[in-house]
Amino acid sequence: MEEMDSGEKRLNELGYKQELRREMTLFKTLAISVSTVTLFTGITPLYGSSLLYAGPASLVWGWVVVSFFTWFIGIAMAEICSSFPTTGSLYFWAAHLAGPLWGPFASWCCAWLETIGLIAGIGTQAYAGSQTLQIIILLCTGTNKGGGYFAPRGVFLAMYIGLTVIWAILNTFALQVIAVIDIISIWWQITGGVIIVIMLPLVAPSTQPASYVFGHFEMAPDSTGIRSKAYAVILAFIVSQYSLYGYDAAAHLTEETKGADKNGPIAILSSIGIISVFGWAYILTLTFSIQVYALSRDQGVPFSSLWRKIHPKHKVPSNAVWLCAAICILIGLPILKVNVVFTAITSICTVGWVGGYSIPIFARMVMAEKNFNPGPFYLGRASRPICLVAFLWICYTCSVFLLPTSYPIKFDTFNYAPIGLGICLTTILLWWILDARKWFKGPVRNINGQSEKV
């Protein structure tokens, strides 16, 4: 008789039966986690604007500072992941760690923040991908000085929609293809990153001295409208804060990962380590070379029975995938009229995604230690101080992404993220107060074919 996987055994102890295919190895999970972190697609489009705020030194040291505090979040999440290796990750963690009184509300808020971050995250990747295609087409047809074709807004939106649809198709019918693509991606990022780091300074007409890269601070108030040095540095850190999240993908895949109670934490921490090193190397290379400046399963979403339905053949929630794609397309439609869509989507994505981290981490920090059932990765007495630093850094990060990024504030420079998030969060809280608190109880145990509230 085949021995039960340790992750599946822990899942059964928590009251959940195994529903998804547990076939992801540590390397595959790590590959997906690293690919989810927005390294090249995060740094590249935001590098120029972040550089403009306060010069190269703020970018270079900003990555170091943000990486340092990201480790606190990752370590805190790794401990929780080791104890709760289940699909739904943060949502499930919040429900159990917050206890029977606050658990339903904690899981409700966490799940919706994750949902907002996920959908906006799809949009940021589709937007960044469209920008890349736009540049490739321009370069292949003669560049902006040689009569090259620069895709207009309508074509750009078509590319955005096309990439979103491709994402939905792959997530519905080809999970193994995604795993292969992600394995290729991690090698591409590592190999390509090494090549860029080595070759870019060699082919650059000139390189900057170390004193410029590590010590030069320069503002551009005429371009940004920002005249406060402290505010300029805060905005310059945005590129790092946006690029260093998504490592929780390993936690979302724990129900599909072999030995998830051990491999989940390893994948989370390993992905942070890889991205921290390669991200800083990439920023240094660019700077030296400068020539110029699961919610629906537990009935938390309307029509939950439709969205939580698992495809009988492919074993994925295909209806939920296409719902996310449809919403992602809708939030991209303003591309036709305004220039700040990317800023708004990245802000919403980061606040939703990173904000979701804060709820289980805060719950872990304040809960009685005797109520925590640790997994193989356990922090002991270090847990509370690590969680405190992680929680405070998350609060700071979310606040930064709600700030105006350019002055004077006008229609085409306004950060619309606070309005969008305000509407979403107000709706979610009112829904909870007026209705959901009466019936939503958080994750539903399904062991032995029976449904039972946690």
List keywords for this structure.
two-stranded antiparallel sheet, 19 helices, single chain, mainly alpha, globular, 66% helix, 454 residues, Amino acid/polyamine transporter I
Radius of gyration: 22 Å
CATH class: Mainly Alpha
Mean pLDDT: 76
CATH topology term: Amino acid/polyamine transporter I
Shape: globular
Strand content: under 5%
H and E order: HHHHHHHHHHHHHHHHHHHEE
Helix content: 55-70%
The residue ranges in which pLDDT falls below 50 over 5 or more consecutive positions are none
**N/C terminus separation:** 31 Å
Q: How is the main sheet built?
A: 2 strands, antiparallel
Number of helices: 19
CATH superfamily: Amino acid/polyamine transporter I
How many separate structural domains?
A: 1
Structural class: mainly alpha
- The count of DSSP E runs of length 2 or more, i.e. the number of strands, is 2
Q: Provide the CATH architecture.
A: Up-down Bundle
Strand order of the largest sheet: 1-2
GO molecular function: transmembrane transporter activity
InterPro entries: AA/rel_permease1, Amino_acid_permease_CS
Subcellular location: Membrane
Membrane topology: Multi-pass membrane protein
Entry summary:
The chain has 454 residues and is mainly alpha-helical. Helix content is 66%, strand content 1%. The chain has one domain (6-439): Amino acid/polyamine transporter I.
